[in-house]
From TrEMBL:
This is 3-isopropylmalate dehydrogenase. The gene is leuB. Catalyzes the oxidation of 3-carboxy-2-hydroxy-4-methylpentanoate (3-isopropylmalate) to 3-carboxy-4-methyl-2-oxopentanoate. The product decarboxylates to 4-methyl-2 oxopentanoate. It comes from Candidatus Eisenbergiella merdigallinarum. The keyword RNA-binding does not apply. Mg(2+) binds at residues 227, 251, 255. Residues 4-356 form the Isopropylmalate dehydrogenase-like domain. Its cofactor is Mg(2+); Mn(2+). The record marks 146, 195 as: Important for catalysis. Pfam families: Iso_dh.
């Protein structure tokens, strides 16, 4: 098979982790008889430095022409980087929001699971972590507060800011369908998370999710208020299978979910539209404080590449091979600094990439 992949190294540790994920994917291609055509595009701060904007039209067109996009991370240190002296719509994050919208990537899948080998890193009490967990947050990604109208004004000398949270039923329905479809391939449980005791948009969310649920009688649906969900994620994460939620709640809960795994450097994500196209990126950020030191953990990006093989190319065998290599490397005792513990061998980003590629078979 010929795979046309656009890569977005981005900022901070992005270029380092993408290089390792490419190394692993190239090894997969070599082992399984595929060819990959790579094209790099600029986004975020890297694009601002060259073009003055965080995403150009040409970059969007190049991404659209590919089968899938592999991204590292974007953004810098807001306190020190000149990118953050630009108006909000010209900052690195605006590029990410713009590409999600331009490619209609409305479904964001963020799996969070506790690796047996890394259980010691889990910050939860042993009686909770012992039960393990394997959940997936299905976050709506192109609507809600992040895309509603916003403005800041001054009225009678008083500054005032407005953001708007809008959803229509079609936007809710299509993400709910994605949530139920993926639940069917997992433990068949959907927890729909909203704030229906306060927000109209949440009441609509709940009613549309119930309509969709009627088409999936084999999947169990429950509703949970977002504040309660934040609490349940640290109290009893094993209760969850698929958490289906809107854009901002998903943004917040997915950081929490990744933290309770104790290894944010391990968690991949996929952003999908209605076709096979997807953008794949680690759940973590650009970590500018450790950029360029060869100490970042490339595993989340490598696992994002595995999601790409699975969702965009239907190459399940190849995706399994990548996930197996990750397990094997952990079992063999290799760790990057973020997941290192006594008795393990500390390796850098590049060496971790080499070790993973060697284990592709
Ligand atoms: C994420 C990030 C982004 C978001 C930012 C960088 C705009 O936090 O992917 O979770 O809020 O979606
Ligand atoms: Mg976030």
């Amino acid at each position: 098979m010929e795979l046309h992949i656009v890569s977005i190294p981005g900022d901070g540790i992005g270029p380092e982790i993408v290089a390792e994920a490419k190394k692993v994917l190239n090894k997969v291609a070599e082992t399984y008889g595929h060819t990959i055509e790579w094209k790099d595009i600029l986004m975020g701060g890297a694009s601002i430095d060259v073009h003055g904007v965080p995403l150009t039209e040409e970059a969007v067109e190049q991404a659209k022409a590919a089968d899938a996009v592999l991204m590292g991370s974007i953004g810098g240190d807001a306190a020190t980087s000149p990118w953050y002296r630009l108006p909000p719509e010209k900052r690195p994050e605006a590029g990410l929001l713009a590409i999600r919208k331009a490619l209609n990537l409305f479904a964001n899948l963020r799996p969070a699971l506790l690796y047996e080998e890394l259980a010691a890193a889990c910050p939860l009490k042993e009686e909770i972590s012992r039960r393990g967990f394997d959940l997936l947050i299905m976050r709506e990604l192109t609507g809600g507060l992040y895309f509603g109208e916003r403005r800041t004004t001054v009225e009678d000398g008083v500054r005032r800011a407005v953001d708007t949270l809008v959803y229509n039923e079609n936007e809710i329905r299509r993400i709910a369908v994605k949530g139920f479809e993926i639940a069917r391939k997992r433990k068949k449980k959907v927890t729909s998370v909203d704030k229906a005791n306060v927000l109209d948009s949440s009441r609509l969310w709940r009613s549309v999710v119930e309509e969709v649920a009627a088409q999936y009688p084999d999947v169990e649906l429950s509703h949970m208020l977002v504040d309660n969900c934040a609490m349940q994620l640290v109290k009893d994460p094993a209760q969850f299978d698929v958490i289906l939620t809107e854009n901002m709640f998903g943004d917040i809960l997915s950081d929490e979910a990744s933290m309770v795994t104790g290894s944010i450097g391990m968690l991949p994500s996929a952003s999908l539209n209605d076709t096979k196209f997807g953008l794949y990126e680690p759940s973590h950020g650009s970590a500018p404080d450790i950029a360029g030191q060869d100490i970042a953990n490339p595993i989340a990006t490598v696992l994002s590449a595995a999601m790409m093989l699975r969702y965009s190319f239907d190459l399940d065998r190849e995706a399994d091979a990548v996930e197996r290599a990750v397990k094997k490397v952990l079992q063999d005792g290799y760790r990057t600094a973020d997941i290192w513990s006594e008795g393990c061998r500390k390796v850098g980003c590049r060496q971790m990439g080499d070790l993973l590629a060697e284990r592709i078979c």
